[in-house]
Write a structure and sequence with these properties.
Elements (H helix, E strand, L loop, with lengths): L18 E6 L8 E6 L5 E7 L7 E6 L4 E9 L6 E7 L9 E5 L8 E7 L6 E8 L4 E5 L5 E7 L12 E6 L6 H14 L1
Antiparallel strand pairs: 1-2, 1-12, 2-3, 3-4, 4-5, 5-6, 6-7, 7-8, 8-9, 9-10, 10-11, 11-12
Protein name: Protein LURP-one-related 8
Family: Belongs to the LOR family.
Length: about 190
């Protein structure tokens, strides 16, 4: 079996500050849905192990040791106005969510996939996600449309493009936390 984690093959980022993660859409546990995420050294960074097949209600993002980082919970909006996803810090879901993410239903802006809304007093859009998740070509844009993170297809040896179950998550420095960028990947996977 080929390795899915990054290696020193020249595909790593030219910027030392950005984090290049390899996301594998597969759980480390048998018979589970989820994700396994490696850093540029090949070390496990994050994981998602969903024991319930097809369950899209609540998902837990964990670090390499199994400590909860974010709980993601789906909230249906009445009257067919779509879905809202709530992101809680850690495993706590009784507290107020840190962010909410809403799938874009704007037919005039077909590049936009979703909006990330801060759950502080302002309830303003913090990030906008554009691109195509099914093609693994997405950009997370922050203030002034500055690139905060992006999802790209991963290439193997000899320039062979791998399938959509292995891809890169590139996180820009001082723009977004790596764990929150991975939470956005999980949300996109649930939405699309």
């Amino acid at each position: 079996m080929k390795k899915v984690h990054p290696n020193a093959d020249g595909l790593s980022s030219s910027k030392e500050e950005e984090a290049v993660l390899t996301v594998w859409k597969r759980s480390l546990l048998f018979n589970c849905n989820g994700f396994t995420v490696f850093d540029a050294k090949g070390d496990l960074v994050f994981r998602v192990d969903n024991y319930m097949q097809g369950h899209k209600g609540s998902i837990l993002l964990m670090d390499a040791n199994g400590e909860p980082l974010f709980t993601i919970r789906r909230k249906k909006i009445s009257l067919g106005l779509g879905e809202n996803w709530l992101v809680y810090e850690g495993e706590e879901t009784m507290a107020s969510p840190r962010f909410s993410v809403k799938k874009s239903l704007n037919i005039f802006n077909n590049k936009c996939l979703a909006y990330v809304i801060g759950r502080d007093r302002s309830n303003q859009i913090v990030y906008e996600i554009e691109g195509s998740y099914s093609r693994r070509r997405c950009a997370v844009l922050g203030d002034n449309r500055k690139l905060a993170a992006e999802i790209r297809r991963k290439e193997g040896g000899g320039g062979v493009v791998l399938g959509t179950d292995v891809f890169r998550l590139i996180v820009q420095p001082n723009s977004i936390r790596r764990d929150f960028a991975m939470a956005l990947v999980i949300l996109l996977d649930q939405m699309f």
